[in-house]
Each structure stands twice: as structure tokens, then as C-alpha cells.
Design a protein that fits this description.
Elements (H helix, E strand, L loop, with lengths): L6 E8 L3 H10 L6 E5 L9 H4 L3 E8 L1 H14 L2
Antiparallel strand pairs: 1-3, 2-3
Length: about 80
């Protein structure tokens, strides 16, 4: 058996942006992903998105090269 190093990427994003992010992750080279509804709490309490659809947690397992592409895409298009 040949083992390869992979990275688990977990991104929590507003539900309204989830479909766009899913497409971007695939375009960056990910073979697939898992999306699920995400709930939680933090120091800032409620966000606007909590009223308009909540959050989605997207997870994917990728190579180091694909990870770098995803991080760059997040940096340029989502922050």
C-alpha cells in the first residue's frame, strides 16, 4: 500500500456563499468535498448570516499543491 500525505481543509462560510465556494474548491483541483450545516457560538454572538441562512462547513482532503491553490483563492476572493 502506498500512502500519500494529504491535508484536511475545513472552511466555515455563510450559506449564501457555499455553492460558489464548492465550485471554487473543485476548480482548484479538489476531487470532492463534504458540506454540512454548521452551528456554533463565539465572542461576537450573532451575525447577520444567522438570520439569513446560517453557516456551512465545507471539508475536503487535498494534496499540498491543491491546498495552496485553495488558500490563495480564499485570500483573493473571500477576504
Amino acid at each position: 500500500m502506498i500512502l500519500k500525505k494529504r491535508k484536511l481543509v475545513t472552511i466555515v462560510i455563510e450559506a449564501s456563499l457555499a455553492h460558489r465556494l464548492e465550485e471554487d474548491v473543485i476548480d482548484c483541483g479538489a476531487k470532492g468535498f463534504t458540506s454540512s450545516i454548521a452551528h456554533g457560538a463565539g465572542p461576537r454572538n450573532q451575525r447577520v448570516s444567522d438570520i439569513e441562512g446560517g453557516n456551512v462547513r465545507l471539508e475536503t482532503v487535498v494534496s499540498e499543491d491543491v491546498l495552496e491553490k485553495i488558500l490563495e483563492k480564499l485570500k483573493t476572493d473571500y477576504f
